[in-house]
Automatic annotation (TrEMBL):
PANTHER family: IONOTROPIC RECEPTOR 20A-RELATED, IONOTROPIC RECEPTOR 40A-RELATED. This is Putative ionotropic receptor ligand binding domain-containing protein. It is found in: Cell membrane. Pfam families: LBD_receptor. It is a multi-pass membrane protein. The keyword Transmembrane helix applies.
Amino acid sequence: MCNEHLPFVVLLLLLLLVTLQQHTADSAIADERPTHIDLWVSCIGEIVLANADTFRHELNIFTLGGGETEEESLHFEHDLLDRLLARLVYQNAGKQPFTFNLAPYDRTVSYNQRNLVLILLHDLLQLERHLLPQLAVKNVEQRGYFLLLLVPSNATTTTTAEKHVAATFRLLWSVRLHNVMLALERRHPTTRIDLLAYDPYGPGCCGCSRPRLLAHCNAPSPPLYDRFERNLHGCQLRIASFERAPFLEFVHPPGRNGTATTAPFTPKLAGIEGNLVELLAAHLNFRVAIVQPADGRTWGRIYPNGTANGALGLLLNGTVHMTVGGYFPYPALLAATTQTHHYYTAELVLAVPEELATLSPLEQLLKPFQPAIWTVVAVELAVGALGALGALHHRRHRLLHFWRTVIGESLPGRTVPRRTVARLALLLWIVHAALLRESYKGSLVGFLTEPNPLADIHSLEALVQGGYRFAMTETIYHTVFDRSSTNLRPLAPHQVQLIKSADRQALLERTIRSRDRLAFTSTREEIVKFNSRNRTDINYRTSDETLLTFHFAMYFKRSSPIAAACDWYIRRVVATGFVARWHHQHLDLRFERPTLAGSGQAEVLQLHHLHGSYLLLAAGLLLATAIFTLELLWGRWCERRRRPNYPGPYPYLHELRRQYPAVGRRKRAQRITSLARCH
């Protein structure tokens, strides 16, 4: 009988033992939970208080609910938040108050881009599946600080969480969330909270995003993990760029001709940007690999539909880590990239093949006087001419003789006025005419003996009037000439020739040989470098008018961890005078002067200086001869028409002479003529 009930007794004892152990465990958990909450509140509170100034006392705190463990972890999360907020308010009393935003990060409207985002979650899969896409979209500036609290739960063990940490950090690196710390509770051998972050670069690790233990919460609170890479451990950085002297030049290895290709290669760099990249590589410990755009677009552009080409296209699609150069800032570029401090400022100008100015003979004669002086002389001559015509009408010739003094002829004595006032006016007029003549002759000799001046290209308007066409890239055309915000005059379609950046050097060589009237948009530094190839050849001149001023900088993909380190070094390199030293050593400003410019010494006046004046003098003499001949012929024709048809001379002319012997010759001739006309 006892043997039959023995199994039931054993089963009953086992049930009692299990019930007793479960009750003991529940009691232990109930006693342990306050200790765990105190540990979490103390750890997170110390981090927040120690770094409050970094994120300006602004916190965004929220939890991720849902899942099978929501009911179990709900009380723990609520208790943790209540005690954490109370601790922050109490310990910060009398200081700058905290601002708490309890809405989820992706739903916030106005917030500080550098605030602290504190997220409570019980499973890393929640972050990967639900929250991470919203974080990447909302974090426009991507400069905030994130603190992930992986709260303990029965469903999520420490071992399970550690398996997902590395994958979570890789996802955070892919969306460029860098300032992230993960608080993870470990219970063996003792209960503690570890603060983890990730390093994209390290010994034998280039972009691997492996976890790294920052500190334990029982140690002094560490600062928030603000990404600033000081050592890239020899990792290779790919740079999208192309050769453009004198800013960046490649010293190619043997067997490479510099053909544009997306395959990276490692040349020796020269120029201001090349020297700067080499300097940064030495300080940050990275290797350089150059990737040249192969689509014919060197700089590239980001279009409104989100596509990009050239170097920017390689940057945005992840082929390269950064690009260097002088880009024109526009909203799409600023929104998609992070820029460093500019290290060089350049001006965009127009460059044309140098040539001498062509002056007509009339321009040479008019050049000594300014238009205002010529206007005064013309008015004086016009007044003198009108006075001369009036004098001829009244048969008086004195004003006509006064006008002769302008061209320096002698003045007959009988025309000198007898009144003192008139004599003084005549003297002033003679002095004025003499000064005009001598000033004109002196200025004319000076202008004729100086070297031929260069063509006028001081402004865009002068180039347009000179019949030049303008060669530029599509980006420069839309940035400079196709915007209403600029003060430059718009160009007609037939005046613009759009070219690719890759074809610019060959077109410069061809234009300098053919001497086409083509103006290129370029920087003065590039023109100086081009002119230095051969000083004896005809070179390019640059216009005085600046079309656009732009800065050279390094461009990274948005919120790259390398951007801050490069920016820090660039600011200090520029402050040491590196750019000024490079400009002085590598740019020979002698090649900015044209080869056709004279030495400035006066020349001996020769026949070729005056051939235009001689031609005008010959034309004037021919015109005067023709007018005189026509006047003579006209006078003889009129005389023949007026002559009477007498058979012979007047038969009584000798009698008239005898009749008036005492009359003067002039009056007697007049009377004889009048009598002859009467007959």
